[in-house]
Design goal:
Layout: E1 2-7, E2 10-12, E3 18-26, E4 28-39, E5 46-51, E6 57-59, E7 67-72, E8 77-82, E9 91-101, E10 107-110, E11 114-118
Protein backbone atom coordinates (compact mmCIF):
# COMPACT_ATOMS: atom_id res chain seq x y z
CA UNK A 1 0.00 0.00 0.00
CA UNK A 2 1.02 3.56 -0.71
CA UNK A 3 -0.23 6.59 1.15
CA UNK A 4 0.04 10.25 0.25
CA UNK A 5 -0.33 12.76 3.06
CA UNK A 6 -0.80 16.43 2.25
CA UNK A 7 -0.35 19.46 4.43
CA UNK A 8 -0.21 23.22 4.20
CA UNK A 9 -3.64 24.27 2.99
CA UNK A 10 -5.67 27.00 4.62
CA UNK A 11 -7.06 30.49 4.33
CA UNK A 12 -4.96 33.25 2.83
CA UNK A 13 -5.66 36.78 1.65
CA UNK A 14 -5.40 37.73 -2.01
CA UNK A 15 -1.80 38.33 -2.93
CA UNK A 16 -0.58 36.02 -0.22
CA UNK A 17 1.39 32.79 -0.34
CA UNK A 18 0.99 29.21 0.76
CA UNK A 19 3.18 26.16 0.57
CA UNK A 20 1.64 22.74 0.12
CA UNK A 21 3.57 19.61 0.98
CA UNK A 22 2.93 15.99 0.14
CA UNK A 23 4.74 12.94 1.45
CA UNK A 24 4.45 9.46 -0.03
CA UNK A 25 5.01 6.41 2.12
CA UNK A 26 4.50 2.66 2.00
CA UNK A 27 5.88 -0.21 -0.01
CA UNK A 28 7.34 1.99 -2.74
CA UNK A 29 9.76 0.65 -5.29
CA UNK A 30 9.88 3.74 -7.49
CA UNK A 31 8.04 7.00 -7.93
CA UNK A 32 7.86 8.35 -11.42
CA UNK A 33 5.82 11.55 -11.78
CA UNK A 34 4.46 13.53 -8.84
CA UNK A 35 2.44 16.68 -8.70
CA UNK A 36 -0.72 18.49 -7.84
CA UNK A 37 -4.21 18.82 -9.24
CA UNK A 38 -6.96 21.05 -7.99
CA UNK A 39 -10.72 21.10 -8.13
CA UNK A 40 -12.82 24.19 -7.55
CA UNK A 41 -16.54 23.97 -6.74
CA UNK A 42 -18.53 23.12 -9.84
CA UNK A 43 -15.45 22.62 -11.97
CA UNK A 44 -13.46 19.67 -13.22
CA UNK A 45 -10.23 18.63 -11.61
CA UNK A 46 -7.31 20.29 -13.40
CA UNK A 47 -3.57 19.87 -13.42
CA UNK A 48 -1.64 22.46 -11.45
CA UNK A 49 1.90 21.20 -11.88
CA UNK A 50 3.83 17.98 -12.32
CA UNK A 51 7.44 16.94 -11.92
CA UNK A 52 9.35 13.91 -13.15
CA UNK A 53 11.84 11.93 -11.12
CA UNK A 54 14.54 13.77 -13.03
CA UNK A 55 13.18 17.15 -11.99
CA UNK A 56 11.52 18.28 -15.20
CA UNK A 57 8.44 20.35 -14.43
CA UNK A 58 5.22 21.12 -16.22
CA UNK A 59 2.88 23.89 -15.13
CA UNK A 60 -0.62 24.75 -16.20
CA UNK A 61 -0.67 28.01 -18.14
CA UNK A 62 -2.98 29.64 -15.62
CA UNK A 63 -0.28 29.44 -12.95
CA UNK A 64 1.58 32.17 -14.88
CA UNK A 65 4.85 31.63 -13.08
CA UNK A 66 3.29 32.15 -9.65
CA UNK A 67 3.71 28.56 -8.53
CA UNK A 68 6.90 26.56 -8.06
CA UNK A 69 7.02 22.81 -7.74
CA UNK A 70 9.90 21.00 -6.09
CA UNK A 71 10.63 17.41 -5.21
CA UNK A 72 12.88 15.48 -2.87
CA UNK A 73 13.38 11.98 -4.27
CA UNK A 74 15.15 10.79 -1.14
CA UNK A 75 12.20 11.72 1.05
CA UNK A 76 9.45 10.97 -1.50
CA UNK A 77 8.03 14.43 -1.08
CA UNK A 78 6.74 17.09 -3.41
CA UNK A 79 6.11 20.71 -2.46
CA UNK A 80 4.11 23.41 -4.19
CA UNK A 81 5.00 27.01 -3.41
CA UNK A 82 2.11 29.25 -4.37
CA UNK A 83 2.59 33.01 -4.57
CA UNK A 84 0.39 35.92 -5.59
CA UNK A 85 -2.71 33.91 -4.85
CA UNK A 86 -6.08 35.11 -6.07
CA UNK A 87 -9.64 34.04 -5.26
CA UNK A 88 -9.60 32.05 -8.51
CA UNK A 89 -7.04 29.75 -6.90
CA UNK A 90 -9.56 28.65 -4.29
CA UNK A 91 -9.96 24.90 -4.61
CA UNK A 92 -9.22 21.56 -3.06
CA UNK A 93 -5.67 20.63 -4.00
CA UNK A 94 -4.79 16.99 -4.51
CA UNK A 95 -1.36 15.48 -4.54
CA UNK A 96 -0.69 12.54 -6.81
CA UNK A 97 2.18 10.16 -7.43
CA UNK A 98 2.81 7.68 -10.22
CA UNK A 99 4.17 4.75 -8.25
CA UNK A 100 5.48 1.24 -8.69
CA UNK A 101 4.86 -0.49 -5.38
CA UNK A 102 5.69 -3.92 -4.05
CA UNK A 103 3.29 -6.58 -5.36
CA UNK A 104 1.37 -3.99 -7.33
CA UNK A 105 1.28 -2.69 -10.87
CA UNK A 106 2.37 0.83 -11.62
CA UNK A 107 -0.47 3.25 -10.98
CA UNK A 108 -1.41 6.69 -9.71
CA UNK A 109 -2.07 7.28 -6.04
CA UNK A 110 -3.90 10.30 -4.63
CA UNK A 111 -3.92 12.23 -1.42
CA UNK A 112 -7.07 13.09 0.44
CA UNK A 113 -7.01 16.71 -0.68
CA UNK A 114 -6.29 19.93 1.15
CA UNK A 115 -8.46 23.03 0.99
CA UNK A 116 -6.97 26.31 -0.17
CA UNK A 117 -9.19 29.35 0.24
CA UNK A 118 -8.13 32.77 -0.99
CA UNK A 119 -10.34 35.46 0.44
CA UNK A 120 -10.18 38.80 2.16
Amino acid sequence: QVQLVESGGGLVQPGGSLRLSCAASGSILNIYGMGWYRQAPGKQRELVAAITSGGSTNYADSMNGRFTLSRDNGKNTVDLQMNSLSPEDTAVYYCYADVMAVFSRRRDYWGQGTQVTVSS
